[in-house]
Amino acid sequence: MGAFQHGHHAQAFILLALTEGPSYGVKLHERIEKKIPGNKLDRPFLYRTLNRLEREGKVNLHLDDSQSGPVRKYYSLTERGWNELAEFEKDIRFRVKTLSFFLDEYGRIMKGK
């Protein structure tokens, strides 16, 4: 418990963090960890997911070499990314409803025990 599963919904949190505006990997990682304390998202997974989202057309990649040091890769949501985020919202609402049913039923059963 307490760590992101490297699965389907971790991507939803990455897309959600990008709704605040374009960001590069380290800042995006910090943004996610700050908003969801206790849930660790490792950076290699974040970068692999960003690369996949870019290949799928859900995020745009912009290279910024205006700063000193290495070129930064800035990511931003595309329309396709916003659509994917809306699909995650529907899926998560359904899962919350289903899990709430489980918790309610379990609580009812345990009261009767």
From TrEMBL:
Superkingdom of origin: Bacteria
Residue ranges of domain Transcription regulator PadR N-terminal in the record: 14-87
InterPro entries tied to this protein: Metal_resp_DNA-bind_regulator, Tscrpt_reg_PadR_N, WH-like_DNA-bd_sf, WH_DNA-bd_sf
Alphabetized Pfam families for the sequence: PadR (PF03551)
Name the UniProt record assigns to this protein: PadR family transcriptional regulator
Species of provenance: Oceanispirochaeta crateris
